[in-house]
Amino acid sequence: MALENAPDHIKLAVDLIDLLEENQVSTKTAIEALKIVLRDFEKKQANKVTSES
């Protein structure tokens, strides 16, 4: 599958991987940062669902 035909979340994941690798971010640092980002977006999603109810 060509990337241009991939779903948006796949394109974003590839972009994030490229960004982290290009900036030589260590695996440990990337994982810790991504955990924070994931928690933040999960909270935003939960708040959105709550406010829509």
From TrEMBL:
Superkingdom to which the source organism belongs: Bacteria
Organism: Marinomonas mediterranea (strain ATCC 700492 / JCM 21426 / NBRC 103028 / MMB-1)
InterPro entries: DUF2496_YbaM-rel (IPR019630)
UniProt name for this protein: DUF2496 domain-containing protein
Pfam family for this entry, one: DUF2496
